[in-house]
């Protein structure tokens, strides 16, 4: 998918776009309803992912405990925004 600058803007529309979707946890199949989002700043642009509360916590915990100690970046350099969908 080719993205333009405008396509990478996320925020207000996350709940509307993903509210009826699936938890995007990729290490196992999860059918829980996503209620939280994490917007990451990746090399190829910002990416919003939605998770159930359990995998939201695990995603942030994995970033802090496993990834950040091995990475030059800090939390704010990886996660642009995170929180409750529709809040
Ligand atoms: Zn999940
Ligand atoms: Zn990193």
Give a brief outline of the structure.
The chain is an alpha+beta fold and 87 residues long.
Question: Would you spell out the secondary-structure blueprint of this structure?
Answer:
Elements (H helix, E strand, L loop, with lengths): L13 H5 L17 E7 L2 E7 L1 H15 L7 H4 E6 L3
Antiparallel strand pairs: 1-2, 1-3
One zinc ion binds next to helix 2.
Specify the biggest β-sheet: 3 strands, antiparallel
Mean of all residue-level pLDDT scores: 83
In what order do the strands lie side by side in the largest sheet?
2-1-3
Order of helices and strands: HEEHHE
Radius of gyration (CA) equals 13 Å
Shape by Cα distribution: globular
Give your account of this protein's structure.
- With 87 residues, this protein is α+β, with helices and mostly antiparallel strands.
- It has one domain (6-84).
- The protein has helices at 14-18, 53-67, 75-78, and strands at 36-42, 45-51, 79-84.
- The chain starts with 13 loop residues before the first helix and ends with a strand.
- Residues 7-12 have low confidence and may be disordered.
- Bound molecules: zinc ion (ZN) (2 copies).
Key phrases:
single chain; 87 residues; alpha+beta; 3-stranded antiparallel sheet; 3 strands; globular; binds zinc ion
């Amino acid at each position: 998918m080719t993205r333009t600058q405008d396509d990478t803007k996320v925020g207000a529309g996350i709940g509307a776009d993903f509210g009826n979707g699936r938890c995007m946890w990729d290490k196992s199949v999860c059918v829980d309803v996503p209620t939280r989002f994490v917007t990451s700043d990746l090399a190829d642009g910002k990416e919003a992912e939605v998770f159930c509360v359990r995998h939201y916590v695990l995603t942030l915990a994995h970033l802090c405990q496993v990834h950040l100690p091995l990475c030059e970046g800090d939390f704010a350099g990886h996660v642009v925004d995170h929180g409750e969908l529709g809040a």
